[in-house]
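Workshop exercise sheet. Pairs work together: one partner reads the sequence aloud, the other fills in the structure field after running the prediction. Swap roles for the next sheet.
Pair: D.N. / O.F.
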Amino acid sequence: MPKTPEPLASVTINEERLLAALDDLLIIDSLGGTGAELDAQDAVAKTLRSDGWDVETWDLDVAQLVARSDFPGMEVERTGGRGVLARWAGTGGGPTILIDAHTDVVPPGDINAWSADPFVPRRFEVNGRDSIVARGSCDMKAGLVAACEAMRAIDEAGIRLRGDVLFAPVSGEEDGGLGTYALLQHGVVADMCLVPEPTDLALVPANGGALTFRLKVHGAAVHASRRTEGVSAIEKFFPVYQALAALEARRNASVDALMQRWPIAYPLSIGTIHAGDWASTVPDLLIAEGRLGVALDESVDDARAEFEQAVADACAADPWLRDHPVDVQWWGGQFAPGRTDVNASVVTLLGESHFAVTGRSAEMYGGPYGSDLRLLSGIGGIPTVQYGPGDAAAAHAPNEWVATQDVLTSARVIADFLIRAAG
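Structure field:
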């Protein structure tokens, strides 16, 4: 049971202002690798300045960052990026709290699957709840805007925090973590960090990892009328696919307690398959790309080695693949797992704030997806927890949505957390 059943101070969340700010950010189609990704960073920096934050911006040297040995990977082409770090100075004597929130979004996919333009926010009921629908509403612009409104409410209530609050809107989270990685290389230091990702208002102190891979399966091309004289790369992918399905089952036979809520805690998924270049030719090359889930506390090297061994074993069992083995490549986002001790102050205090605002204890679990938490807690050594509005199941989907009430609740909880932790 949390120690403090009531909010520490009375703050008022301005619903109209919060939702208007969210609409303004959702209109920016900040897809990774596009100019709008920088536009979103600049827009948030401008808002923070107008709210009274001390804001520093800088251009990211992407080439220099990518060349570093511990760079976490990137799946889209970028020639530049924008770093933003805002500071709300405290009166002194309190801890420094970092809020890290990404502004980039994934592509909308099939436009016909949406009820309207993905980048024109609109309100209607989803599952009986008033909701905001647009790409990025759930993942994670609602959480970002809720955190901004939380600080506005604290300031308007005349509350002075002892500790500093840092706010870092970042880009490139969806495809590896460029923005947060650059932030850490810039030298940001904090005692704790809140990432307002969509957690359905649960505490998420840990994430499994996710490693992007590419498989190249080789065959032998021949005219389709003589297909038995060639070797189809598609057919030779079957035993590899079956081996990977068996690997996924083995890797999920026993999982950490934080991950037991998920049917598959560490998914191994094939996302794209491309084969052949002519309908009447037996395909001599198949390229499959996907992601490998990495267990909590498992090293990336160990996960890769187990995956590569499973592919090698499948090749060894097939006469053709034995002589023409599948090529395994690791590319794009390479998300290691990350974990914060469930007894860390950031987790405890945020749990107390959730209870104080909602009257309910927050659920706690580990996420089955990669996130910037692993960079903040790993490279940065900053105890980090994810907490925000929206169900991750709605993220990356058509008609992405977030419940209006959850956005407001998260703003109240974040405000109470900042007062509780830094006040």
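Discussion prompt: The longest helix spans residues 137-156. What would you look at next?
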